[in-house]
Specification:
With 286 residues, this protein is α/β, with parallel strands linked by helices. The protein is built from twelve helices and six strands. It has helices at residues 4-22, 27-34, 38-46, 53-62, 68-77, 99-110, 129-139, 145-158, 176-180, 186-199, 252-268, 272-285; strands at residues 113-118, 169-175, 205-210, 224-228, 237-241, 246-249. Strands 3-2-1-4-5-6 form a six-stranded mixed beta sheet, sandwiched between helices. A hairpin with a 4-residue loop joins strand 5 and strand 6 (246-249). Helix 2 crosses helix 3, helix 7 crosses helix 8 and helix 10 (186-199) runs antiparallel to helix 12 (272-285). InterPro entries: Cro/C1-type_HTH, DUF5753, Lambda_DNA-bd_dom_sf. Residues 16-70 form the HTH cro/C1-type domain. It comes from Streptomyces griseorubens.
Length: 286
């Protein structure tokens, strides 16, 4: 397990090394064309040091990389959140969001697909404003109203990835406990469950419920997220959220294990159609 910035530096370095190789250049060639010492290219490719966005842009120019989507993703991986000079929306909340949350949002904004197991609460991308507020208030007890308002705004702004072009593809497996745990009171919970039913009908969203009747399952160890990115699976990453930080798993064997675990959970869960009916039934009884 690594913290987000270290993982992103290493992934960025690996991708830049692959692009250099594809361009038919040695590290010495790249350094000469960029006007650097060869050791700087080596440090960037091994992820041993941070990388400025201007340096990433220069290397991408040297390697002849013109794909705007790939350039944007690699600039986000540099940890700046400043793709091609454009400040992303979450920069306005720097004073409110911890760095680990900003890391998560930046990855989420560039991912093409997201698989998530949720065992406690509704995924943030599908929360109603009232539910988001109740969850945030419970998780950060004693938070001033102004900061609470800002955190809820961020949670709702994140949902734009589902309306982007192309949209993020969200596949969520929800433990039944997510539907049964009353958050914010009966009315808030009922509206949230109706929102889930509506979301389940979106083409970019796949929702499955893992009922209590499924018994113990691999997901009892806790929730997790798997981000997948366009163009290359080498950038995929597993994220574990904790109270004060997030941890990232990037090794191929870890990604394979979590992907297989998610597939197993999905196979034991209700089908999307059955899940939609199940959630509607829970809403009717909320």
């Amino acid at each position: 397990m690594q913290h987000g910035p270290a993982v992103r530096r290493r992934k960025l370095g690996a991708e830049l090394r692959a692009l250099r190789t594809a361009a038919g250049l040695t590290s010495g060639d790249a350094a000469r064309l960029a006007g650097w010492h060869q050791s700087k290219v080596s440090r960037i490719e091994t992820g041993t040091s941070g990388t400025k966005p201007a340096d990433v842009r220069l290397l991408l120019d040297v390697y002849g990389v013109n794909d705007p989507q790939l350039r944007e993703l690699l600039l986000v991986l540099s940890g700046t959140g400043d793709g091609d000079g454009r400040h992303h929306w979450w920069h306005a909340y720097r004073g409110v969001l911890p760095p680990t949350y900003r890391d998560f949002i930046s990855l989420e904004s560039q991912a093409s697909a997201m698989r998530t197991l949720e065992t406690t609460v509704v995924p943030g991308l599908l929360q109603t404003p009232e539910y988001a507020r109740a969850v945030t208030q419970a998780a950060l007890e004693g938070t001033p109203e102004e900061r609470l308002d800002a955190l809820v705004e961020v949670r709702l702004a994140r949902q734009d990835v589902l309306r982007a072009e192309p949209p993020l593809e969200l596949w969520a497996v929800l433990d039944e406990a997510v539907l049964r745990r009353e958050v914010g009171g009966p009315e808030v919970m009922a509206r949230q469950l109706h929102r889930l039913v509506e979301a389940s009908r979106l083409p970019q969203v796949r929702l499955q419920v893992l009922p209590f009747s499924a018994g113990a399952h691999i997901g009892v160890t806790g929730p997790f997220v798997i981000f997948s990115f366009p163009r290359t699976s080498d950038l995929d990453v597993v994220v574990h959220d904790h109270l004060t930080t997030s941890h990232y798993l990037e090794r191929k064997e870890d990604l394979r294990a979590y992907s297989e675990a998610f597939e197993a959970l999905a196979s034991h869960a209700l089908s999307p159609e059955e899940s939609s009916e199940f959630i509607a039934g829970a809403a009717a009884g909320a």
